[in-house]
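Narrative progress, year one. The postdoctoral researcher (J.K.) led the effort to move from monomer predictions toward full complexes, under supervision of the PI. The following entry was the first complex the group processed end to end, covering 843 residues in total.
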Amino acid sequence: MIAKVIVDVPSRATDRPFDYAIPADLYGWVEIGSRVGVPFGGRVLQGFVIGLAEFADIDESKLKPIAELLDHIPPLSPDLVELAQWISDKYCCALTTALQAMIPSALKGKADSVVTLSEDEDTALFSNAVYSEAPWLAYIRASSGPVRMAALQERFPADAAAIKQAVKLGALTEQVSIRDRLAVRKALTVFPPEQAALAQEALANYPARAAKQRDVLRYMLEHPEPIALTALVEALSTTSATIRAVADKGWITIREVEQQRDPYAGRDFKQTEPLPLTEGQQAVYEEIAEALDAESSRVFLLHGVTGSGKTEVYLQTIERCLQHERQAIVLVPEIALTPQMVERFKGRFGDSVAVLHSRLSSGERYDEWRKIREGRAQVAVGARSAVFAPFPRVGLIIIDEEHESSYKQEESPKYHARDVAVRRARQHGASVVLGSATPSLESYAAASRVLSPTQTDASASSRTPGGAALLAMPNRVGNRPLPKVHLIDMREELKAGNRSMFSRQLHEALLDRLEKGEQSVLLLNRRGYSTFVMCRSCGYTAQCPHCDISLTYHQKSRVMRCHYCGHAEQAPEKCPSCESEHIRFFGTGTQRVEEELAKLFPGIRVIRMDVDTTTEKGSHEKWLTMFGERKADVLLGTQMVAKGLDFPYVTLVGVIAADTSLHLPDFRAAEKTFQLLTQVAGRAGRHELPGEVVIQTYNPDHYAIVTAQHHDYAGFVQEELKHRRFMSYPPFCRLIVVTLSDEQLTHLITAGDKLAATLRQLAYESGVKGSIDSDGTRFIDILGPVASPIPRMKDRYRFQCMVKYRGNAGAIELLKKAIAMLSGPQGQPPVQLSVDVDPQVIL
DNA sequence: AGCACGCCGACT
DNA sequence: GTCGGCGTGCTC
């Protein structure tokens, strides 16, 4: 038998299966999805088995055997392997990158070697004076078992060559194996006597002087449950030796037991019962339930206004899904994965919920993942990568806030969780629910008939077989009104002599809430901005020496850091360019707002949430809890205060400046602004107390702001679609951005021009219409190369080409072909190439 | 990605 | 005459 193995080398040259012989003792254990250690080019690497075959594709004499099998249960199932292949195809990434993204990072094994003295070693070799006096040799001799090579390297850094030589000559035997980054945590556990009666008798006759041992045995008889050794030691203030002594006499047993790192251990989640559904919720629920009962793979776009009770619909459809003995996955944007959210799921489904998000330690994440893999969880709630939760029979995938750009991974594999979810659901006959108060234009266009057939992106609708069904929940639970939104023209404020960052109306509204003891949320929309250092005399800004980007100032450490390469330097006292002392750190903005609040409203209690105050683990949670307990009057922050929060005493939402995200050079700028305003407005008046929203802007006539004021999603979409059609942007076409980078500008220019020319030639040959204005259903257009928005990063220059296409223009295949044509015989590209299919941020 | 093999400068 | 620089090439 032959195993087809993808080795863990993420390069184009090795992005194909390699054949390995399956040794007799692993026969039947190696499956599709197994993780193995294989010899590859003189070293041992981790790899994934993606296929089994009777015969090898190459000369059998060249075959090497699989060195080891790394897990008893394969970490991946065949359907996930297939999904990885689809991702690798669609998003142009190495298959190993896609596979690796599906398993917790704890399972990223690396080669680890140990050495022992060879049994039959030629003693002459070691009697050689050079060796016999070597301290490293003495060290190996002195140790009882094999010695880790890494330990030798650390202890005797100067002797690396000699040690390698000894291995080469056969005096030392080296054994390489794959070691995981993190192991399953185990703890010694004490088990009670199996035959209590006998033990009881023994207790009575226990040697008089062994009082402590008697304590142990008595305890275990009184509490006949397994207990951690350490806990027992503490409970009886004894030592492990005493306990072992009892075990040695055979009365109790001590065994290693696998532990669960439970991030929510010790937390009591109050169990909740399903709430009665409103008419609107009921209708939506029944539609989805019908698909679940029929086990047909359908996609629903659930457009429900803020406060319309989407979460309750999720909970009850999951319930229905579980009744069919199928599992459910809930994706939530990282930022919205708050304790509040987790509580709702744990409260309804208890222990069968596994939570996966980036704030967990890698050990915790590994254990939550194992809970899914081993069938101890039926519901997975998590960020983007939870779409890969290793359930055997997925019945439902819910994507909350589906418009969030964080569902697109920025690093390779640059997948979009929404599209992966649709694909995975199809494999399992599962349904997908995309929920949002402000659906992305792509999803909305796919689900409604906004676009005529010729304008519709054909491949988008093929992504969602039969098209997505649009479900609407236009009313809030309890028919509470959406909050009244006031637009304030800040130009008028200035004219009236108000130079403060608070308009008179916002000022008054805040004062009013303070008097009533109600709470306010203030949003500072500063997407795309960060703290930077600038000289007020000469305009000098601190730049990264390796990247064309401003350094970000971190107040705590007084260090300036580059977000892209990690370069860090001390913040200067004087301007390095003009020696002036007027060098300033342009703060987060939230800080300035906080100061101003303190000045205007003496005694006001403000919680500020931004990158500075939420980096610590659990701090995010801490602030929100405090706010929930009404220990503050104002929650002030950036985007993170806009998402998913639900506090009953919040009756005022203020947006300091709505426009900052409006004029970013990104075609989604208006959409992002509309979404943010709508989302944050939705934080107000969710319960008995009515809400009010004040939006300050310099563009009170902009459609994104006006439609947000009137909670008019349809109006926004209509206007935005006009622009997208005119400019030929999604959903009227699809995009691919190829970024080329190299240390040498000349190389880069040559390669960039060549890539664009090849693409244009291939597009022309394939007969796809090349004009943007073409009314054909297929078109492809290649733009660039142009300098990237960050023209230099980590000392490498960067260019990009954009491919716009519509229909099945085969753009991805064309691109792959073009890259292959530019690459060398082993597939090595002339410069570094990175492909982003369906990019979310075009900055 | 690594690591090996392979062809040209500063040392014993 | 050798040690070693890192430029192509291959890994079942």
